[in-house]
Design a protein that fits this description.
Order of helices and strands: HHEEHEE
Largest sheet: 4 strands, antiparallel
Strand order of the largest sheet: 1-2-4-3
Oligomer: single chain
Helix content: 25-40%
Number of strands: 4
Shape: globular
Distance between the termini: 23 Å
């Protein structure tokens, strides 16, 4: 549903290529589902300062996503590192009511 939501926003805005956006929202939602808590909220908007698209994923968990060191034997844990290479910037900020927002600004 998150990928469809993002694709619909991009179509409304006339952005023809939503490939990176769909990858980003998929990675952030998957991390929130696997490692977060409570409901997950997805928000997609244009940054007023530079017009770039920002994807935010909110969840109630206190843990912060971090890029893991290379482990060639691991079967997971590479998604955030790959996503970081595709976006202009990303980060995490705590919510006053608890939980966090993980965000990524697309190029």
């Amino acid at each position: 549903m998150a990928r469809r939501f993002l694709a619909e926003r991009f179509a409304e805005w006339g952005i023809p290529d939503d490939y990176v956006g769909r990858l980003v929202v998929c990675e952030l939602v998957t991390n929130a589902y696997r490692h977060g808590e409570g409901p997950i909220v997805v928000r997609v908007f244009h940054d007023e300062r530079d017009g770039l698209v920002v994807v935010e994923v909110w969840d109630g968990g206190e843990g912060r996503p971090m890029i893991q060191p290379d482990n060639y034997a691991a079967t997971s844990g590479r998604g955030l590192a790959m996503m970081a290479e595709l976006v202009r910037a990303w980060g995490v900020r705590p919510l006053n009511e608890g939980g966090k927002v993980t965000w990524a600004k697309l190029r």
